[in-house]
């Protein structure tokens, strides 16, 4: 029964947070910002104010597909945010610009996260094969390898949190400071950014819980030997 409740929680919590994000984002997508700037214009303004003239901005398909590509030095914004003049549009756009500024400033957590990408990818792809094999064959060595791989993926999730929170903090500061939004609009922008941050928090908490579950299973196997 306990395991059933656990699996329901780890499945339903992410779905609930995604629904909350979409609802919050959609509601603020209908509220126009006072400056009238599109997400692309707001992003360009903040990039130029920080001397990042080499960073370009491109529209991409999909909803909330926004991201910063450090390899090509491109801020890619979903079309709703690229062309939109809403509170949500400029909030998401300046958040991604926050990552570009982190990149330019050689922000330590961002560098660490980039370094972890190949390790985290390998951990995500390989961990469950080893863990499942360890559980099926009661092989503690295989189980331990799987846990180490999975721990690398969890570490990536943990390092992502300060990167995302810092980018959101930068976004809120520059939006008001650059006149993109007024002080009375900051609350709406904060709701959008906090809702997005919750998705990272939930993913991290669930990953840590899964890691703990695997560690306990490993300890149980060792105690039976």
Automatic annotation (TrEMBL):
Q: Does this entry carry the keyword Membrane? A: yes
| Iron-sulfur keyword on record | no
Q: Single GO molecular-function term?
A: peptidase activity
Keywords associated with the record: Hydrolase, Membrane, Protease, Transmembrane, Transmembrane helix
What are the GO BP annotations of this UniProt entry?
A: proteolysis
Classification via InterPro entries = Zn_peptidase_2 (IPR007395)
- Residues crossing the lipid bilayer are 6-21, 115-137, 143-163, 192-219
Query: Entry's Pfam families?
Result: Zn_peptidase_2 (PF04298)
Identification of the protein by name: Zn-dependent protease
Q: Which organism is it from?
A: Cytobacillus horneckiae
